[in-house]
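Re: that chain you flagged

S.,

Sorry for the slow reply, it's been a week of failed gels. I finally had a moment to sit down with the sequence you sent. For the record, here it is as I used it:
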Amino acid sequence: MNEEHPIEPRPDAQFERIGDSLYRRGGVIYARVRVNGKRTYRSTNTNNPTEARQWLRKWKTERFLLQSGIEPQGVVLHRARVTLAQLIDDYLVAGCPTKTMGQKSPATIAREKQFLGICRAYFGTMPAAAVTVGDCDKYRDWRQSGGYVSAETGKRTVNRTRKWSRLRTIDMELQVLSNVFRLAVRRAVLKVNPLSGRGHYSAASQVRHCREVAPTPDGLHKIEYWLRGRGEDEVADLACFLAYSGLRIGEAQRLDWECVDWAEKLLHVKREKRGIMPWVPMTADLAALLQQMKARACSHLLFPSPFDPNTPRERTAFGNRLRKACKAVGIGHVTAHGLRSYFVTQCRQSGLTDSEVAMLIGDKTGPAIIASTYGDLRPDHLLAQARRIRFKASGNNGAESSPGCSPDSMPTLSKTDVTSTSLPKTHAVSERAAA
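Prediction finished late last night. Pasting the structure tokens below so you have them in one place:
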């Protein structure tokens, strides 16, 4: 059996030349070849000169074909037989790496595994090299028609949410599949990524941002009053805490009382999504809320589960109670991430810049995401700001006066002054033009 990888000889190894580019050592013939631009020895695993020359001729032929842009027949046949299920397995074994072969977060890996399970059900038996962009359209129709059968429940899954949400989920699934193809291209299993340049089914204008599910100050007060009136103080505390701190619900869930620094008026937090600024300033409203929570505390966690004080409260249960409260008080839908947008909007309307707000919420993207995604300006605030605009100048006594650019207030120049001030400019222009 021939060894395909080059073998570097030991520094003290003695090679006996037996022919053109052929050497014998220890009863084995080696070929002197060039691999990736570097001369090295390659074992033929034989002591027969005839067989060794055949291996040398084969390697030289493959090198010539690659230099000419022609792949060897064995590589082409292997590529045509590789299925997408095999590529998915290789991607999972590699740990779902990034473009730079880095490591992703555990939450991202878990989500990609879920998406790849759906993609495997449709693309699994297809040859990877035969996949085209047109297959993405068929996959979209298959997903929207409920073609996927869940392995856990054995039932067909049909996404019953909004159309833009369905299409966005399909785009994310195909993006993970494109990551699989990219790794295969990197390892020379495929020549090109068949999904490279694929268009998206969901438009950016159709995506619902968190500012669209954020409450107003009056709406937040109604939610808190309704929850506390039903004895759900813990749920009301979490809603107000998210609105006053700007934290993600995942960041707030695992907080305990040791994270509260009463002396420095800070909250020490561990950011998600590789966020920055591992602390939150304790405003007056947030400090008052924490003092009320401390008086009712029965666990080391700020928001423990009602069933186990050592376990954080589930975000699904909180979302259900928040949705129930919005429906009861007659306001629009509010989510946990919408409460983060509420914090951003209040900061902007208080005069903070987008850069300062981005630092407060720990988002490393910077001010751009504040203006495009999180931030909002409510109509009442915008109207109050617009009423401050003045288009006429006012006198010393506060009365309106004519603008300073009126003809009567313009300074007058004599003819001599006009000529003297304009001639140098004219000569300068003429000299530059002549040059």
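What I noticed first: The radius of gyration is 35 Å.

Talk soon,
D.
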